[in-house]
Amino acid sequence: METLTCICLGIGLSAACGFRVFVPLLFMSMASLSGHLALSPTFAWIGTYPALITFSVATGLEIAGYYVPWVDHLLDTLATPAAIVAGTVVTAAMVSNMSPMLKWTLAVIAGGGAAGLVQGTTVVARAASTATTGGLANPLFATIELGGAVTTSIMALLAPIVLVALLIVSLTLVGRKLLHRNLKPSPSSA
After folding, report:
1. pLDDT tens, residue by residue, 143-161
2. Residue 28: is it exposed, middle or buried by C-beta count within 10 angstroms (0-12/13-18/19+)?
3. Neighbours of 44 (CB within 10 A)
4. Potential cystine with 19: which of 91, 129, 149, 188 (Cβ 3.0-4.6 Å)?
């Protein structure tokens, strides 16, 4: 059960990386330093004071950048690969009782995949916001995304299995809705 909890914790924090790359890493660092989170020995550096300071500064800059017009689009371009890498690292940091091949395969597919899916969704939402409002609503989306990163990080630390179950249900519902919409005949073809 402990391995499942660690995997779910890693996936949950990885999903949070899709909202904001550095927020989950900051939460991991704080939780590790306070003794509430055990990291894989290879990633113990995340739970150090230099890492905490680095993640704090990076989080502040990332949050501020999303409130600056046009910088938010540049950040989205950089954040997509960064979120996938961060999601992979976060999951790998949480899993320690596994063979390295299985650990990294899981980290890349589940951790990187979760971060990539969430990040992709935020990129599409921000592009739609820019197209419909000329970017005026982007600060609202930045606030929602920040709230998503913080909430998902906290939920991952407090109830990782519940969070992953919610993520699976959400993805299933969204996937079914998209599939249903794509299979529906268009009015012009009737």
Report:
1. 999 999 999 999 999 988 8
2. buried
3. 13
4. 149
